[in-house]
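Lab notes, practical 5.
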Amino acid sequence: MPKHVALLRGVNVVGRTMVAMSDLRDLLVTMGFADVRSLLQSGNLVFRTDRRLSGASLERMLEAETAKRLGGVSPTYMVRSPAEWKALIDANPFPAAAKRDPSTRSEGQIEGETTVTGLVRRPADRSWFMPSDNAAANEWFSRDPALYAAASGRPADQVAPFLIDANFDASLPGGLPQGGETIVDFPNNHLGYAITWFGLAACCAGVFVAFATGKLRNPVA
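Output from the prediction step:
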């Protein structure tokens, strides 16, 4: 029998919309589903059925029976096969955000000594117009190793008093953490400056000539 995975939205293990996982499992067994299991305590279900129904049909059936048999609770069901859920995960439009947790990119967790090539930068506080640092979410606008050490529970004297902005490395396993974010560029805009200032000087000279010519043509008696 094909396997299906159902994610429920709008149920809780406590509070007004409390639903016991045992009640959900019993409900699906009563409806004729097989190998019914619940994952964690958040209303996620795995079951099998030989009914040839689409995911949308299963969702409507489960939502109607849940509302009727479990005291008026009306959760939203999202039913997909394991292959369909995998396809949705693989099509994640935010792959970089999904890999913020280092445990999701074990191939990039290099053990032992390694060499980092990049730009050495001294610590610096965030500017006044930047948002505040969010240590809980690991979002930083300050460049200060001491702050990073405090947030991770490390003594400040065990971290270097500088940062290294790593160069981009296409050979890095997993592609993260991504380097090359700091672009070193020294633009030469002196020609533009010269045109601007000499243009202003020419304008001032023109204004003076116009003023002086007017005075000479109309002398004050």
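Observations recorded by the TA: The radius of gyration is 33 Å. Residues 196 and 208 are 18 Å apart (CA to CA).
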